[in-house]
Amino acid sequence: MFTNTQEAGNTLPTPELVTLTKQEWEVLMRLANEPTNAELGEILCITPKSAENYRNRIQGKLALKGHHVLARYVRRYEPQLRQWYQLLIGKPPPPPELSDITIFFVINLRKLVCQ
Q1: pTM for the whole structure
Q2: How far apart are CA 20 and CA 62, in angstroms?
Q3: How far apart are CA 115 and CA 101, in angstroms?
């Protein structure tokens, strides 16, 4: 069931997904809307520099170049990525997409929680 997933001629590179750490998965699953590193940092209670480092490591492991390419990858394979997340991390993944207003509220809530 969880081998290279083919859909409409596209292949999800599953061996590379297994190499992602839990924190890299947390970042990856939130990239569909192309949040800034600062927004990712606020949502995940990490620094913007850490968010940037996680993005870069994910891009390297998945052999993807550029933040826009990474976001398109997440949007294209979202259902399969959610399955892999649950299998590897052991809990349901975060919601697939957050609206701008939801991100605003999450960021402000996290500011209170992270302090």
Answers
A1: 0.74
A2: 9
A3: 22
What angle (nearest 5°) sits at the alpha carbon of residue 21, between those of residues 103 and 78? 50
Identity at 11, one-letter amino acid code: T
pLDDT tens figures, 43-70: 888 999 999 999 999 999 999 998 899 9
Q: What is the largest CA-CA distance in the chain?
A: 46
pLDDT digits (tens, 9 = 90+) for 79-93: 899 999 999 998 877
Residue of 114, 47, 35 whose CA lies nearest to 74: 35
Total domain count, the chain = 1
Structural domain boundaries, residue 23: 5-114
